[in-house]
C-alpha cells in the first residue's frame, strides 16, 4: 500500500520551492483560467459557466475532481507543477492550505469584505488577511420523506424534534421495507459527516486547540453508542455495504445540505426539510464549508484573484446562493434565499440556513487532516459490526490519532 503523504507536507514542499510564476510559461492568445472543483453536478456546472461567461478578461474552465480523492489530487498537482489557477478547498483542508503559504492573499480584490460573516471567514484567515473566499457555508439539515413516515404510522416531525424521535420513526419505516435514516456522503467511510449527529451530545473529534483526542470522551462514547444501537439493533440506518437513494424515494430521511434540494424537483413523494434533531446537549447546528482560493504559484495569480473577486461579488453570490449559502450578511435572509431556492419554504430556509449559520460549528478540521481522516477511518472500522465494543474501539481511535494531533 502506498504511504500517504500528508497534505501539509506536500504544501510545505510547494512553498519551499518558490513562489508564483514557477509553474509554467503563460500561454499566448486570450487568457485562460482553470479552477478545480469537486462537484460534477450538471446544475452546479451550468451556473458556474453562466457566471464565468460574464467575465471578459479571461475564459474560465472548471475541472471536476472526484470528492474521494479531491484534496490528494489537488495537492499532488500543485507539488508537480500542474496546479490550477483557482481551487475549491474543503473545510478539512483549510488549516493546511492557509498556514502553508500555498494561497495568494485576496482581501483587496473581494467586494465589501466588511459584510462577510466572521464565523464564515475564520477558517480562511491568517494575520488579518483572507486566503480563500468561503463561498459555501452550508448547515446540515434533514430532508424527510413524509409519505413514508405516514405509511409507517409516524407523525411528521416538528421543530424541536429529538434524535430519539428521529430514530424511532426511521426504525418504523425500515420495518415496512424501506430504509430509515441515511447519513449523506458517509457510507461508513467519511466519518467527519457524523459530526452532524455527535454534536447533539456535545462531542468533538478533538479539543478546540486541536491537541487532545476527543473520541474516547464520555459525550462521544454516548453518541456513538446511540448510533451503533440505531444501526445494528433498531435497524434505523442502512448497514455497511448498503446503498440507498433517498431522492428516489427509498429512504425516510437523509442528513445533507440544501445544495441537494435540486435533486427533489421531480420527486414523486411529499417531503420537508428539518433542522438537525436536538440531542442531549440541546439545539445545535453543524456547517460544511468550502472556500475558493488562488494558487500562489499560478503564473496568472493576479488575474485569477481578479476573477475570484468577480465570481464572489454580491450579485454573483446571490446567484450561487441557489446551491451554496453565502457568507455575506446582506444575503443571509429569507427573502434573498427564497429567490434562488424556490423548492424550499421560508420557514425551512430560516430554521435550517439562516439560524443554522448563526449558531453552527464547522465540521472537524485540523492541520494534517488527510492523514488524520485516513487513520481515524481505519481505526473506526471495527465499530461497524454488530458485536463491537464501542468504548474499546474509540480508545483505539485515540491511540492512533493522538500522535498526529498538535504535530
TrEMBL record:
The keyword Glycoprotein does not apply. The keyword Glycosyltransferase does not apply. Pfam families: SBP_bac_1. Gene3D superfamilies: Periplasmic binding protein-like II. Residues 1-24 form the signal peptide. Keywords: Signal. This is ABC transporter substrate-binding protein.
Amino acid at each position: 500500500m502506498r504511504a500517504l503523504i500528508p497534505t501539509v507536507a506536500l504544501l510545505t514542499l510547494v512553498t519551499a520551492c518558490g513562489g508564483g510564476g514557477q509553474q509554467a510559461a503563460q500561454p499566448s492568445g486570450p487568457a485562460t483560467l482553470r479552477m478545480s472543483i469537486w462537484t460534477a453536478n450538471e446544475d452546479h456546472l451550468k451556473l458556474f459557466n453562466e457566471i464565468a461567461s460574464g467575465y471578459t478578461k479571461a475564459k474560465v474552465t472548471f475541472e471536476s475532481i472526484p470528492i474521494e480523492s479531491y484534496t490528494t489530487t489537488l495537492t499532488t498537482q500543485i507539488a508537480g507543477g500542474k496546479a490550477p489557477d483557482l481551487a475549491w478547498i474543503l473545510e478539512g483542508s483549510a488549516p493546511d492550505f492557509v498556514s502553508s503559504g500555498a494561497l495568494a492573499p485576496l482581501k483587496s480584490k473581494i467586494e465589501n469584505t466588511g459584510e462577510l460573516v466572521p464565523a464564515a471567514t475564520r477558517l480562511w484567515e491568517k494575520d488579518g488577511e483572507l486566503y480563500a473566499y468561503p463561498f459555501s457555508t452550508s448547515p446540515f439539515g434533514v430532508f424527510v420523506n413524509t409519505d413514508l413516515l405516514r405509511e409507517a404510522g409516524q407523525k411528521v416531525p416538528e421543530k424541536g424534534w429529538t434524535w430519539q424521535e428521529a430514530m424511532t420513526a426511521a426504525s418504523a419505516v425500515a420495518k415496512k421495507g424501506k430504509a430509515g435514516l441515511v447519513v449523506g456522503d458517509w457510507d461508513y467511510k467519511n466519518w467527519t459527516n457524523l459530526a452532524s449527529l455527535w454534536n447533539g451530545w456535545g462531542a468533538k473529534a478533538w479539543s478546540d486547540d486541536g491537541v487532545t483526542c476527543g473520541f474516547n470522551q464520555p459525550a462521544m462514547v454516548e453518541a456513538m453508542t446511540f448510533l451503533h444501537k440505531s444501526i445494528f439493533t433498531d435497524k434505523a440506518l442502512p448497514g455497511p455495504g448498503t446503498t440507498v437513494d433517498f431522492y428516489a424515494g427509498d429512504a425516510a430521511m437523509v442528513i445533507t445540505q440544501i445544495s441537494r434540494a435540486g435533486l427533489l424537483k421531480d420527486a414523486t413523494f411529499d417531503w420537508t426539510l428539518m433542522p438537525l434533531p436536538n440531542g442531549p446537549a440541546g439545539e445545535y447546528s453543524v456547517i460544511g464549508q468550502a472556500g475558493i482560493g488562488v494558487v500562489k504559484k499560478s503564473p496568472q495569480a493576479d488575474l485569477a484573484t481578479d476573477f475570484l473577486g468577480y465570481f464572489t461579488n454580491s450579485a454573483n453570490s446571490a446567484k450561487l446562493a441557489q446551491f451554496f449559502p453565502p457568507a455575506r450578511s446582506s444575503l443571509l435572509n429569507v427573502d434573498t434565499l427564497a429567490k434562488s431556492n424556490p423548492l424550499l419554504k421560508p420557514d425551512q430556509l430560516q430554521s435550517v440556513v439562516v439560524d443554522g449559520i448563526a449558531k453552527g460549528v464547522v465540521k472537524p478540521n485540523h492541520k494534517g487532516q488527510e492523514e488524520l481522516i485516513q487513520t481515524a477511518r481505519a481505526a473506526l472500522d471495527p465499530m461497524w459490526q454488530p458485536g463491537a465494543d464501542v468504548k474499546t474501539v474509540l480508545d483505539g481511535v485515540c491511540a492512533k490519532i493522538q500522535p498526529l494531533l498538535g504535530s
